[in-house]
Write a structure and sequence with these properties.
The complex is a heterodimer. Chain A is α/β, with parallel strands linked by helices. Chain A contains six helices and ten strands; from the N terminus they run E-E-E-H-E-H-E-H-E-E-E-H-E-H-E-H. Chain A folds into two domains: about 110 residues, ATPase, nucleotide binding domain (Nucleotidyltransferase, domain 5); about 80 residues, Nucleotidyltransferase, domain 5 (2-Layer Sandwich), CATH 3.30.420. The termini of chain A are far apart. Chain B is of the alpha/beta class. Chain B has 13 helices and 17 strands. In chain B, helix 5 packs parallel to helix 6, helix 8 packs parallel to helix 10 and helix 9 crosses helix 11. Chain B is elongated and about 100 Å long. Chains A and B meet through helix 1 and helix 2 of A and helix 5 and helix 6 of B.
């Protein structure tokens, strides 16, 4: 069983992983922003070259479908859906927010935060591998959604330790016994893949970025 | 296993070759080539052929008698086709009495085209030809149309799908780049599937993939470029990047034979250029707009008089029923090859505002006629003058604005009078479409233009 995982949702770091059965054979990381188009497909080629495999021999494709960099998502998703559609391969999508909370831990709930701008961010709340919600919101507004759950212990996973976070944690602690933060969390590729399998395979035509955030004209 | 000629097989090759004719030799070069069929380290068959520009001629084919009827000859000929993929045809001669050989070549798609008397001593030879089909699957997503097409030999529109986003962008008064990119991503595999269904072809029938790499909206271009790169990678076929403007020019080659030298008037929403071509895929810009493109001026004038996006075709329609009553300045009426349309655009905007302030109604039809006549006149005047200066007898219109009825009619009248050949594309090939990209790609590939998986978009790409 050969699988490919493509994550191009971040602004400056993309990743392609090549997995054979339960072994991670290779991960190619791309640290570019504007030239992602020049690097992402070559990363796929690089991954498959480690065992001289042909793309047609892949069994499954997993792709991170957002939220995140609009352009980055479209590059990764276009490559993934074209491969899946043309070679009739199974394709699965996983939220970029889930990837932040993919590492196993002892907390009841995990909250992923992808900071955007001002007091707004993308938030994803998970109970094990169950998604409770994924939204684009202000730190203040998301409190209401979190407080609807009966949470005892919460781990916040984020790449960005910013000024809003400490105040946010103080507010969360009013209702939750234990709140901890995990900056730059590790990614567990096998948990991400498992989450993709739980989400189920998708018709390649229906694989599209999940932007969560509205653009100006949509408002 | 088929390999290119290796000198270590020279002796064996000469032995087999002499069985065909006495003057067989093993002097190969970049034009005359030889492929060997090796089995168990022994030469069992060979084929020699010549590639001269667009022609490929098979000279000798031979398979050892005890190795025949195993498909070796077929494999050798099929391999030659790969070498000849930039040629128009493959030809060969066969003895008219060699019925088995004739049937064999016919089974591979060769057809009789001429008889050569006494070609084999006292026996006649038959000249047989196989046309090379080079199918390009092209993708165009530079703006708000998701289009894919299969184009054969740069001419034949085997099938085209155009998914227009006009209805989506209409409500915003123009193209919203982010929405255009999102819509392309959503539709790209859908249009590809529709194309294969429509043409009854599959990806194995495709010889190369082409894509618009620029100019255009970067987010939109990226979707097409990623899709084309992925397909070229999956099917191990050439990837041909195509400049969108060359696509508009080659929209003409679908229905016309291009005759050089020629002068192109390229008029679209983003460009107004005069381009000189002395041969295929060679572009020299001789003039262009210094500010707004002609299409942009049309769209802005349309907006100010309340015509919804896209305004160009509607202005053309209204201009046909109005009269030239408004006095508008002739844009950049000088001896240069450049254009300027921001002045006339501002003049129209000022006129509309002034009339409004006076409480007067603008006659939209008359304003459209006045605007269109002034703009089209200067385009034609400068194009014809430059063609005469350069002694060029072929003018080619291209781009979205080449659909304009007044431009077509008046340019045709003047060209007829001046004895200049004029070509312009059918209306369906004037607006953005992937057929024109597939047509241009064929000629680009012949000029050895290709790319790999690291191809990136170039939103400001020049010709």
């Amino acid at each position: 069983m050969k699988s490919l995982l493509i994550d191009s949702s971040r602004n400056n770091k993309s990743m392609v992983s090549y997995i054979k059965d339960d072994r991670l054979l290779f991960t190619s990381e791309v640290y570019v922003d504007k030239n992602l188009s020049s690097s992402l497909l070559p990363s796929v080629e690089k991954c498959l070259s480690v065992d001289n495999s042909d793309i047609s021999l892949l069994d499954k494709i997993y792709v991170i479908n957002g939220p995140g960099s609009f352009t980055g998502l479209r590059i990764g998703i276009t490559i993934a859906k074209v491969i899946a559609w043309s070679l009739n391969k199974k394709i699965y999508t996983i939220s970029s927010l889930f990837t932040l909370s993919s590492e196993k831990n002892m907390y009841d709930y995990n909250l992923s935060i992808l900071y955007d701008k001002d007091d707004s961010a993308y938030f994803g709340l998970y109970n094990n591998k169950t998604t409770i919600f994924e939204v684009y919101s202000s730190f203040n507004d998301v409190l209401g959604l979190i407080n609807k759950e009966k949470i005892n212990t919460l781990l916040i996973n984020t790449d960005d330790d910013n000024e809003y976070l400490d105040e946010f944690i103080i507010n969360l602690k009013k209702n939750i016994n234990t709140v901890s933060k995990n900056i730059n969390p590790k990614i567990d590729i096998f948990n991400i893949i498992e989450k993709g399998n739980i989400n189920g395979k998708i018709n390649p035509h229906d694989v599209n970025p999940v932007y969560l955030k509205q653009i100006e004209v949509e408002k | 296993m088929i390999i290119e000629y290796d000198i270590k097989y020279k002796k064996e090759l000469l032995e087999l070759g002499k069985k065909l004719h006495d003057n067989f030799n093993a002097d190969f070069n970049e034009y005359t080539r030889c492929l060997l069929y090796i089995y168990d380290n022994t030469l069992v068959g060979f084929i020699t052929f010549k590639i001269m520009y667009e022609k490929c001629e098979i000279e000798d084919v031979y398979v050892k008698e005890d190795q025949r009827r195993q498909g070796i000859g077929k494999k050798l000929l099929e391999e030659v086709e790969k070498y000849a993929n930039k040629c128009e045809n493959i030809t060969l001669e066969v003895n008219e009495n060699n019925i088995n050989a004739i049937k064999f070549y016919e089974s591979l798609g060769f057809k009789f085209i001429a008889k050569r008397e006494n070609y084999y001593g006292k026996e006649d030879g038959l000249l047989m030809e196989k046309k090379i089909e080079f199918n390009v699957l092209a993708i165009e997503t530079s703006c708000d149309e998701t289009s894919v097409s299969i184009v054969r030999n740069g001419k034949e529109d085997v099938g085209t799908i155009i998914l227009s986003q006009i209805d989506i962008h209409k409500s915003y008064g123009g193209v919203v780049p982010e929405i255009a990119s999102r819509t392309h991503t959503k539709n790209i595999t859908i249009v590809l599937e529709e194309l294969l269904e429509k043409t009854n072809m599959n990806m194995n029938d495709i010889d190369a993939f082409a894509v618009t790499s620029g100019p255009g909206l970067n987010g939109s271009l990226l979707v097409g470029v990623e899709a084309a790169k992925a397909l070229a990678y999956i099917y191990k076929k050439p990837l041909i990047p195509v400049n969108h403007l060359s696509g508009h020019i080659y929209a003409n080659s679908i229905e016309h034979e291009l005759v050089f030298p020629l002068l192109v008037l390229l008029v679209s929403g983003g460009h107004t250029e005069l381009i000189y071509m002395d041969k295929h895929y060679s572009f020299k810009k001789l003039g262009g707009t210094l500010d707004d493109s002609v299409g942009e001026a049309y769209d802005k004038v349309a907006r100010v008089i309340g015509i919804p996006y896209p305004g160009g075709p509607e202005i053309d329609k209204l201009a046909n029923i109005g009269k030239h009553t408004y006095d508008l300045p002739i844009p950049k009426d000088d001896t240069t090859n450049d254009f300027s349309f921001s002045g006339i655009k501002s003049a129209v905007i000022n006129l509309v505002h002034n009339e409004k302030q006076k409480g007067k109604e603008i006659n939209r039809e008359d304003l459209c006629t006045s605007f269109q006549e002034v703009v089209i006149d200067i385009l034609i005047k400068k194009t014809i003058r430059l063609a005469k200066e350069l002694n060029i007898n072929n003018i080619l219109l291209s781009g979205g604005v080449s659909a304009n009825s007044l431009l077509r009619k008046n340019m045709k009248d003047i060209c007829d009078k001046e004895n200049i050949n004029l070509v312009y594309p059918s209306l369906k090939y004037c607006t953005d479409n992937a057929t024109m990209i597939g047509a241009a790609a064929y000629y680009a590939y012949k000029e050895n233009i290709s790319a790999n998986s690291s191809l990136n978009t170039n939103p400001n790409q020049k010709l």
